[in-house]
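(Fold this chain)
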Amino acid sequence: MKTILVLGAGLVTRPLVCYLLDNPDFRLVVASRTVSKAEKLIDGHPRGEAKTLLVQDKASLQDLISESDLVISLVPYAYHVDVAKLCLELGKPMVTTSYVSDAMRALDGDAQEKGLLILNEIGVDPGIDHMSAMKIIHGVQNRGGKIISFRSYCGGLPAPEANTNPFGYKFSWSPRGVVLAGKNTGRYLEDGKEVFVPSKDLFAHTWTIGIEGVGMLTAYPNRNSIPYIELYGLGDIKTMYRGTLRYPGWCETWKKFADLGLLDDEERTGLAGQTFAQFTQTFIGTPTGSLKSDLSKQLDIPEGSDIMDRFEWLGLLSDDPLPVESGSPLDILAAKLLEKMPYEKGERDMIVLHHEFIAEYPELPAKEMITSSLVDFGIPNGDSAMARTVSLPAAIAAKMILHGEITATGVHIPVLPDIYEPVLKELERLGIRFKEKTRKLAS
């Protein structure tokens, strides 16, 4: 029996734990700072064990890794490299759903030398997006064609019937992570020209896309798309874009959050006794009238605008006390967002993942437009779509590594057929599947 160490017991972990405990070949150790969360996930299963762990405690972490056959790291991304170094030292493969950092990539040589796999970006975005894209890209290339344009969009959103607040959003993962993502820059390729979007303009650089069965959504750049040209083997491509999806209204409001300074992550002190109204006033300066009037002038928007309504609904103009005595504007905003935007009991979330390819073939005069879409819903009073689509790919990959079905070594993301083909096949069995359409474009 193989032992799998799962580091972290957060919002997305339950489907992974259930999937792996359903396999009699595995014993699971779930280690978390809050052991009660790990115990809840294990739920008394005879092959499961919950343990307390502060991931900064290197000695305890080393002991747990040494006693395992594979490590799945679901702790904050800042710790993944430390975990990976211990895995290499102790000869254990590792799986994580987070983006590959430069420091992680630097471990590739050591991992290959030791014959170990460190598999990253095996969640939904990143993860399922890579795998579903590569399936189509390799299919086109195998038919002698090439991809000249690729646009990929992904978003975690409330299902349409649960879209009940002015922001069109509810939290199925870390609110701080959502707010931090609003500070990212964007970079992509459009018609052969590289486009850079500074963080202050991220939410001003948007466009609208229609998704079958969902409706119209707004897209904005998701980090740096340029490295995926090489990772996906798309040397002939003219357009390469990866975007994040939100309901309409989100981006214009977050642009004003950024303009005001609410995404600043520098800690402030002396906040004891302050209200949200007083806190918001500090971003404006000397009062000249009502806070709402001053704020609308500062942001150059009408007092009666939808954006101002969202500021008010969130409570940023209220006399509610701040939740902390010290902290950054970013942390204060994240706390307020989480308070106001939880999923209610029985509500469903939704994952939307949509690819658009343009392919050309030397023997055909017309180009092809290929679309591939996944719309996955959470289970009322059960697992969220976010939890399922983030953690199940990692669980499936872990199982296949331990069964010898994935034999790659080094630091990887799931763009190899030997990884993505069996994982996608198993996801389909679990009900997570894409709809693909192909049509000819006018010459």
